[in-house]
Fold each of these.
Amino acid sequence: MKEKKIPLRKCVGCNEHFDKRTMIRIVKTKENDFSVDFTGKANGRGAYICKKIECFEAAQKKNAFSRAFGMKIPDEIYEQLKKEFTDEK
């Protein structure tokens, strides 16, 4: 019997591949609105980050989200993500 494929996505912080269901997705819509997508199904361009605080800090330091979306990311998104990481602990 054939095994079901597990969708992998690359973390913008550590550049490692993980199961996309275990990662946090950040979405940019056509109207340049940013949001955290917990369902993984929201319309728009997405970038993934794993749930490690070290990866978040590395991505913020090297402007990985700005490169992924091709524009500057508002500080509110970074604050919202930081809150998500601290709430899980």
Amino acid sequence: MNISILAILAPIIVLGAAMTIHEFGHFIVARMLKIRVEIFSFIGIGPRVFGFKRGHTDYRLSLIPLGAYVKLGGDETNAAIEGEGASDIPASERFDLRPRWQKFLVIVAGPIFNLVTAFAVVFGAAMLYGVPPTPAPVVKGIRADGAAARSGLRVGDRIVKFNGAENPSWERIRNDALISPEQPLPVTVERDGREIDLTVTPLKKMEGQEVLGVFDFALDYGPYPVVIGSVTDGSAAAEAGIKLNDHLIAINGEQVSDPFQVTEYIERSNGAPVSLTIERDGVRQELSASARRVADGSLKLGIAPILNIPPQPVGLLGAAAYGVNRNLEMLRVTGNALGQVFSGKRSARDTISGPIGIVKVTSQAARELGWVGIFTMLGFISLNLGILNLLPIPILDGGAIVILGVEWLLGVVGIGLSTVVRERIQQVGFVLLLMLMVFAFGNDILKLFA
């Protein structure tokens, strides 16, 4: 498939698959428990657009593309959104008459299917391609007069504690920096047999409309080739003919050994033309480009140089461990970023993205990595969709689980939760969720014109 067409279709594929997987979890567990499923809307809520009916189930696409849903027989909790169900469903097939443990299994199945998908994507990639090697957190290079140099960090320092974590991996260090631009972070290094406490502040970097934190020091990965990891559309690099995956040999005749060296060289160029020696398909070429100033005032060619580090093959257990650890790390970073929003350390605008933001990132991933990028985004979206739905917000699965718990507690003292009360709770949850979606959508629009 043409890469441009794939980039256009990627958001539909990723979002559609993530939502369908979620609803299929509810669907298949309900069917296993012999609970009637009246509607399986793969995409959308509200009026039916088209579909087909098999047995008692209407498989369809709905008009309003806000998620997807499964309507269970006898469950009128979301009738205001999903419509009234059939009135002649046998008691043995009604969801509302089932024991709470069965209701819990049906409700929790959606998020679990998303979490399993997120694990499966990373696990499958690890089995097929291997896992990236993790270097020891030893400092290889520091930008002269940069933030790291001013903090007291030196070449050869080994990071033994970072932001409260003992013996941190470089992935954890980098991720904490990404969500903490211009925020001082405590770090302990080992130098000449002594441990020294320092404070390092990640620099603020604009990548598109996203605000990220980066360090002006590099770790020692070893002697791997430097390649072009991405090229910004319309940038000086793109106009010069630099392409994704070009092997960067030298810059102004100086041999390139790590991405940090390239970034520093470009920043020192003061906008003067720089000569880039690249290798593409075994042929060396000389290209010239002049860095331009971007929104944050820094000089950029519009490239992201990265080390071409071959992944290490792993077995079944290694791939499984990597799948679990990678997803736990993503959850940790996401949770910390949201925590910073509530504590006032981070702007909600810099943290929350809506459908437009997801479409942009997914399209870019497909354009740069093809199907690998699509599956990567599917894993990421599935992970976040699964966790989001477990939040104790009415109308979400987590809210439904909380209501089950409340009903159980009230039942202990002989009190029931009326249908009217449950409907009001769901309506409040729907309004809250709609407000969040409006905020995220508006945030996306503001970023487009920022």
Amino acid sequence: MLRVYNTLTRKLEVFEPIAPPRVGMYVCGVTVYDTVHVGHARSYVNFDAIRRHLEFSGYEVKHVQNFTDIDDKIIERANREGRDWRELTAFYTAEYFRLMDRLGIKRAHHYPRATEYVPKMIEMVKGLVEKGHAYVTPSGDVYFDVSTFPEYGELAGKARLEQETVSRVRSSGEKRNPADFALWKAAKPGEPKWPSPWGEGRPGWHIECSAMSMDLLGESFDIHGGGHDLIFPHHTNEMAQSQCYTGKPMARYWLHNGFINMRGEKMSKSLGNFVTLEEAMDRHGAAALRMFILKTHYRSQLAFDISLVDEAAAALERLAEAVSDARTAMAHLPDSPPPSPTKSARRLAESADGLADAFKEAMDDDFNTPAALAALFEHAQKVFSYVRSVTGPSSPGLDAGLLGRATGELERLLGVLGFAAEEAGYDAEALRRAMEKEGFQTPEGSDPLEEALRLRRSLREERKFEAADRIREAVKEATGFKVKDWPFATTVSRLRMTTERPAGEEASA
């Protein structure tokens, strides 16, 4: 039974979609005026894991995520750089897809852009005016009247609402209430503008998500997600205008991920304390960054710490090594299970049989990825123990069916979290140079890795351990592969956990 924490009610609730097995999920996207940073990545990794688990659980998810491609920040940057605002937003939209693909984020089914929805936004604003929930000012602005919605602020909480400001909305002496927010902004010289019943202008920020979600998911849908910073004012205002327009709840469950903090502050562009996503992935690897994010519950705050990202990379390497060791054992040993299972075999079988249930139990507890990962790491340790038992000098015999099932289950569930084990390539010439540096020649035309492993095994048999260890270090330096000395062969762990998007997945419009 899946339970989710609903920001609106501030409690865990049993997840009951409106029209099962279909689930409508709207996640607020980026304003495309700059590159995405690690704080953005956290939100999209979290909601990608949520979507993947819903699909794993049998739900048919329709995922919608918008692009804000008209906004004060876009106009200001385009003017500052002397660029057309459309060219600017097109560039950063493409950048978003490129970086999210590296991070293993599944493409949403729809990526509506604000500029595509101006007519629908005008229609909605017109309806709110007619219903008495909005008013037109003499200057041509249109504001939502928060006094007409008694539930205004329930999402943020009344106490927080009193502390917050409406700093994202420009001040106007024409407002009836300081908390009223802009639905339509009258045109200013040099700004993009559209015709409307109130004169030329452009939409406010909040109205776009209401219009988009209503068009693509209906007047009420299941999950509305985003970062904790969007609770107020963005989601608070979305809820007010949508529910006043339709008379129905906008979303059944409101989910919000915590911040990534940098030096004790929320990571954000406005504060100038962010690490770009590309910088982080180039330094640590996309898979390590994804693991770093998923090792913390999505609602908790997360401090960006290089040492923690390195720990995540080491954890991924350990998982890949478990799969690699199992494959090595199955490739080199005959399938000859003993008449009765050994202790390590029984433990592995029990773990394999219960792993999916343990994983699902963790994820069903408000998408608890740290607990789900803990179950996978515990299972990987049992894989290691079993492989050691069947590859040692007193091996009872390999049960290839058991080991294959256990590693297959591990890989399947890692896939639910967006990871895949893939064989890594290497630079053959770099390895040749590293070997030559240590005084070893690899014949032209030979595979330098195979030659290095053959030489190491030969030197170890001759008890020339110092020379053999120099080869191990040369291989590690040139390829990053860990050398493994088995009773039957010397190999390397070439598997790496990646976050590559499935081949053939198309970009959504």
Amino acid sequence: MTSAPMLAMSAAQHALLRSHLFPGDELEAAAILLCSRTPAPRMRFIVREMIMVPHEHCHRERDRLTWPGDALVAAVDRAEKENLALVLTHSHPGGLFGFSDLDDRSDRLTIGSLLQGYGTCHASAIMTPSGSMAARWYGQDLVPNDFAAVSVTGHELRWWWRDNAFVNRPLAFTSAARDELARLCVCIIGVSGTGSVVAEQLARMGFGRVLLIDHDRVEKKNLNRILNSTLAHAQAETIKVEAMADAITLYRGSGVAVPLAKSITVREAVLLASQADMLFSCVDTLDARHIADEIAACFCLPLFDVGVTIPTRKAANGTPVIADVCGRIDYVQPGGSTLRDRGIYSPASLRAEYLRRVAPDAHADEVKAGYLKGVKEEAPSVIALNMRAASACVMELIARIYPFRHEPNALFARTEFSLAAGEEMHTAEAAFNAESNPKLGRGAAEPLLGLPALRLPKSANGGAV
């Protein structure tokens, strides 16, 4: 089952577009969105840049608009540099949520001419005064194909569905919310201690597709913290994602769970994750978090990252004691601060982790990363902590789609809890310094994520396959 076709943008892009399209004079206005694409099979346009057509260069009326051809020429010149698709966008001040006969005729003429000279697929879109949007795409046959929704990702997650469903936003925890989630695809990276708990919740909440990515196998030592794992799985060394997918199939039916037994650091896994509408990072390495961060930026996806730790200290008699029991949930939105901006990883820490993996002798004095910092423990009994953190992570998602907090979501970019101290702390998005990200909206441009290691493999004759 292929995920729904969509046009995706960040909340900042949407706000800027709305400001231009509705300057306050109740006349139509125009803009051109330059979009990258999600890899096949999904049809998903990702806004990379926007060209605001100057109001004074257009002939503007309440129900019609004529704008200059040189704006389109300039857009094509820019789009050709990155093989971007164009989305010709205008406002409907009267509030029509759809395309008029005049829009149909204009698309056939303008997009038809555009397709003759550049690209194989372009689109058009409209926006109403409320900010709602509808979009459709055209291939070489010039037949209009509706995008199922226009998605906007910011402090909240919003979809404007083309069939006008869920205009009155569902309440959290209701069957109406479940019905909307059934239209969406979620990807869980890492299906072990926290990841298995996250996956279980999301599958039972009703997501239409649940993508599972993890290369590891079930072992007896982790049966105490991986949901749906059994002694039989450990004895057979079953792949973790296959065990989870089988369990989901038992209560959701076939086709919902899509397992991939690969590390997120390989091309095949990145391609699968790109098909989702949102990402959950439930991993225990900085390298995996780095890749999840890059996928979220390139494909304009919201990212939820969860981590737990139990720091220890030495008592006076030299025995280890628990210093704290901690969890962290980060929500990352396109165009906002990344996990790197927030100090979750850095080039130096990525390098150190790499050295620990390939040259452990160089770091023999370091304690191996794990749940219990400073204590060697093969089978930590941490399922209660994992469930606490995983539940908080999924609740963060619910709060973003169906807001229920008394305070704005902008104040909850990071949530940290200390069970030892009985405290929960929140950090606002504005508290982090978001560096400019040239990969934002990059889409499927090669090499994937801009990383040479993910370059399209070569065929035997030297060409790309």
